[in-house]
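pasting TetR/AcrR family transcriptional regulator for the record, 228 residues
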Amino acid sequence: MNADDRLVLPGARDARDPARSLTAPGVSYTREQVAAIQRERMMDAVVQLSDESGFENTGIKAICARAGVGLATFYEHFPNKDDLLLAAFDVGVRKIIRAVAQAYTAAADQGWETAFDACMVALLRATADNPAFSRFYLVEIHKSGRDSHARVHAALESSYELFANAEMSAGMPTPDPQMVPLVVGGIYTRLAQYVRTGRAAEVMELRESIVEFSLSVFGEHRRRTAEA
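structre below
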């Protein structure tokens, strides 16, 4: 895979990358562009610092120092660090879900099994290529408050819907309402185990077992439905 094709998630870039400098000579930005760059840099900073020290040990002053912004700027965008965490989570997870959906669409004409495998490759590559964000959305997110749990639940619900719709669009029976959450939840838990133990770079080795297990579950449901 070409490095330029990698999914870039919060935490992947240096928060003080010169390409995002707001004081570069000869470069001017609108107020909206300045705000967007500041938010991106703070998201990168909170993901990186959470990966290094844990979200609970990451303070707002440290986030500002890493992002190159002042405290006043931080509070112009976020009332607290938990809101910054949720914003970074939302941005990164939306990108992952979009990449997985696009992978399915690109391979859909090759059959549901091939398209499902393409989805898993997209998910596993995003995880391996973005170890800081992977730890952030799989581990650190749970160290925040109740809103973070709701965000995780909403993200998983989006994944359930994606896979359920993919099955039906491929002519498969309407999936058991408990089946897709069990499969997606199992994948989520296994990825979290790898990331929590510092093995994000190795998640591609899960590809075969995840695909084989998932297809066997959905295939068995299809067989039973056909026999009913």
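The mean pLDDT is 87.
Residues 81-107 form the longest helix (27 residues).
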